[in-house]
Design a protein that fits this description.
By secondary structure, this protein is α+β, with helices and mostly antiparallel strands. About 20% of the residues lie in helices and about 30% in strands. It has a 7-stranded mixed sheet, sandwiched between helices. Helix 2 crosses helix 4. The longest helix is centred in the C-terminal third of the chain and has 16 residues. Bound molecules: biotin. Biotin (BTN) binds next to helix 1, strand 3, strand 6 and strand 7.
Length: about 260
């Protein structure tokens, strides 16, 4: 590797945060920060660990996709959390809402969510999160792995050129990854560490959902379900009225309909 410097140095000073980022590990290159965080969890690490990488050689997204990001341009990180087991299904919502609130500070355009946790600006995806969970001797854990397109030029990557954007593309200027990361750690911690914010999480998150009221197709395992997205329930499950009129509750499916602009 070329020996790049750690732009995120010193962000582990908590600065009022309670949990997230109490220890931050930076890698110039790794396979997947989600795997690094999982290994730490299995070795007994306490919650709040953040693993950041400048580049991933095996970064992965939801539904077995790969996550594309050129070296040193974007934010690629994973957070190890040990939430109450009843809060585990809400971890994708924590990720999506924290990213959306962070990006509000860096763009004038509305930042929306596509269920369950794609973050979109100008009808294009700018961030996604892959939440994985497990258990070890120290109990249950969740890994929130998030990629935020900060300075990448999506048009240089044919596989995502028509569906992705970045802060730099939106603003026309290079954006400090350190400042985005600082705000993101703050927003994520503010939601996760406060019963008040966790209490309003589903309504705050669903207020940004662009999926509601739309006819969509959802991949649910091997099944494709077409229906009207009527809303979300108190744990973030999508309420989808299928073509037979039945109301389906979908927890971890995937909205596959091409929304406007994709
Ligand atoms: C998606 O939208 O499909 C989720 C993308 C998640 C990508 C992030 S990048 C950091 C972390 N490490 C990974 O291997 N994946 C997540």
């Amino acid at each position: 590797m070329s020996g790049s410097t750690n732009e995120f140095e010193g962000l582990d000073a908590l600065d009022g945060r309670q949990v997230i980022g109490r220890r931050i590990v930076w890698h110039e290159e790794t396979e997947s920060t989600n795997d690094d965080a999982r290994h730490a969890a299995e070795a007994g690490e306490c919650e709040g660990l953040v693993v950041i990488a400048d580049v991933q050689t095996a970064g992965r997204g939801r539904m077995s996709r790969t996550w594309t990001s050129p070296p040193g341009r974007d934010i690629l990180f994973s957070v190890l959390l040990r939430p109450d087991v009843t809060d585990l299904p809400k971890m994708p919502l924590v990720a999506g809402l924290a990213v959306a609130r962070t990006l509000d500070a860096f763009t004038d355009q509305p930042v929306t969510l596509k269920w369950p946790n794609d973050v979109r600006v100008a009808n294009r995806k700018i961030s996604g999160s892959l939440v994985e969970s497990g258990s070890s001797k120290s109990g249950y854990f969740a890994i929130i792995g998030t990629g935020v397109n900060v300075n990448m030029d999506a048009s240089a990557h044919p596989e995502i050129s028509k569906i992705a954007t970045s802060l730099r593309t939106l603003t026309g200027e290079s954006v400090s990854r350190r400042e985005v990361m600082r705000k993101l750690l703050f927003e994520m911690d503010r939601i996760y560490s406060s019963p008040e914010h966790m209490g309003s999480l589903v309504s705050d998150w669903s207020a940004r959902l662009e999926t509601i009221g739309q006819e969509i197709d959802v991949r649910w395992g091997d099944e494709f379900i077409h229906g009207l997205a009527e809303g979300v329930d108190e744990t973030g499950r999508l309420l989808l009225r299928d073509s037979s009129g039945e109301l389906r509750l979908l927890e971890a499916g995937e909205v596959t309909t091409q929304l406007a602009g994709q």
